[in-house]
Amino acid sequence: MIDGGFKILFGNEKSKELTISLLSSIVGIDISDITFLNTENFSDSLSEKPVRYDILCQDSDHNKYLLEMQVQGHAGLMERSFYYISRCLSSQLGIGENYKNLKGVYGIFLLWCGIGDLSDDDYIKDFRIVNIRNVKEKVQGIRQIFVNLRKFDKKKEECTSMMDKWLYNLKYMNRNNEVAFKEREEVFRKLEQYAKEKNMTAEERLLYDLRVDAWRDYYADLDEAMEKGTAAGLIKAATAMKQMGLPTDTIMQATGLSADKIATL
Questions:
Q1: What backbone phi and psi angles, to 5 degrees, belong to 226?
Q2: Low pLDDT (below 50) residues in the chain
């Protein structure tokens, strides 16, 4: 699943039960209900950088959940995610309000890329504020959770937790044209129902299909090139990435081609 379809499906009031299940499984909190919030966060200061979230919601206790799908890697991904979380925190209080009124902010970032200079040895990274002398001591309610869907490699039969089942479907449902685990889990039957064409407008469906096809072609070309290591394959992958508007730095990092070579494509 790519970002356009993700926002259409999981940022929708009519399918918020899916969002609740996805959030609960990743964060590990039993969430009973959510309210979708404005995804644009503008400061009173004209000089402060605005924020536009993919999906922003809060639970019945007013804890906020920032849910993002990121398809392109860039060097400032970690810093940007922290900035987004900070803005969610700073926008909670008015003049004179007590800091103890601050509620939790959970940033969940579903990725099709790596996280800057961090190692890719695991598909999930859960960052919290901890005491480095005693990691059991944690600041509650502030978390950055990164899930690299490309690194998630569990087979269907290996997915036992609800989080594994969600990640499996997020990674493969477009490729397989079906939703897994629907035989036993009601939420996945509803996922299949809401993901059907009739739940999108014609314009939304066209945009979604174009983006899915583009990303399928890109990853197929890139994977083939990396497996064969051929110059022709790498050039084909780089050309597809360039046509999608990816920055030169990203194409260089993915293919190993030089900026000059990419400029000629």
A1: -65, -35
A2: 46, 198
